[in-house]
Amino acid sequence: MDLGLRGRVALVTGSSRGLGKVIAELLAAEGVSVIVNGRYNKTVGTTAYEIENKNNFKIRVYKFTGDATNPAMIKEFFDEKMSKIGKLDILVNNVGNIEKFGRFEDLEEEDWIRSFNLTFMSAVRFIKASLPYLKKSDQARIINISSLSAHQPSFTGLNPHYGMAKAGIVNLTKNLAADFGRYGITVNTICPSTLTGGGWHKNVIDRAKRQNITASKAEKLMHQEECKKSPLGKMGELKDVANMVVFLASANANFLTGHCYNVDGGITRSV
What is residue 270's three-state secondary structure? Predict the structure, then answer.
């Protein structure tokens, strides 16, 4: 099936590894030229080469090494590199991470500020910088990666700063969908549940430390708990979210905007 993506250009933030990398790979497989972004030259370069190699070097892959929390780096890229690339059709805001695990009482003010800056403000900055290019596209997409924690916080009370920032992404999506409709730009959010791969290992290590158990035991317990939440009895994979990104970027999603799509195996079926 032709998804109408060949020849498009996509910027996927935080795409040198994890979920962002899988998103970039699947978009490239559909003929999209992708801009790989990450903090470190080595991982950005390795990922860019791997994507080119998988596509027999028929897909153009651009590299953007830069910290999403640094406005100057984003401005420099758009001023110097995007003007040469010349177009942008798809922006995937994937940056976001839990840099410090903890409950409310464990978190300092700077932890809240850092989480908001990394997860929410990075999206604001990239959208603002991308908008002049997206307005010129005849199939413009903004796809934001949020989290199930945006509207269903952890039962353990962990990481409220992360859920807060991700909830902001959902609200931003709805606001921008109403605003950018006049430009023909669709804006949607994906809210995944806990996935295997990506940040899963960090969650496992944190659980092991908090309960003073081995990482393997922590992983087994967490896997069992996550599987029980879903009617499907299993956890999602990175490709499940990436496939939804590809669909929302495609011509098949021309009339979809302002929505939050829960890729969660039915966990939020009652919401």
Answer: coil
Determine the Cα–Cα distance for residues 168 and 146; give it in Å rounded to an integer.
Answer: 9
For residue 182, how many other CB atoms are within 10 A of its CB?
A: 8
Q: What is the pLDDT along the chain (271 residues), one digit of tens a residue?
A: 789 999 999 999 999 999 999 999 999 999 999 999 999 999 999 999 999 999 999 999 999 999 999 999 999 999 999 989 999 999 999 999 888 889 999 999 999 999 999 999 999 999 999 999 999 999 999 999 999 999 888 777 889 999 999 999 999 999 999 999 999 999 999 999 989 887 888 888 888 888 899 999 989 998 999 899 999 999 999 999 999 999 999 999 999 999 999 999 999 875 4
Where exactly are the structural domains of the chain?
Answer: 9-195+237-263
Helix (H) or strand (E) holding 49: helix 41-54
| Cα gap 76→95, rounded to integer Å | 18
What is the token pair recorded at 146? 């949020």
Structure tokens at 167: 């909830």
Q: Domain 9-195+237-263 carries which CATH code? A: 3.40.50.720
- Half-sphere exposure of 170 toward its Cβ, with a 13 Å CA cutoff? 20
Stated as kind and residue range, the H or E segment containing 153 is none
Picking from 172, 150, 152, the residue whose alpha carbon sits closest to that of residue 161 is 150
What are the helix and strand counts (H, E) for the chain? 10, 9
Cβ atoms 41, 14 nearer than 8 A: no
Note every long-range contact of 217-225, with CB atoms under 8 Å and residues 24 or more positions apart, other chains counting: 222/194
Q: Is 233 in contact with 261 (CB distance < 8 Å)?
A: no
DSSP assignment letter at 267: T
- The radius of gyration of the chain from alpha carbons, rounded to an integer in Å, stands at 18
CB contact set of 217 (below 8 Å; sequence gap of 6+): 208
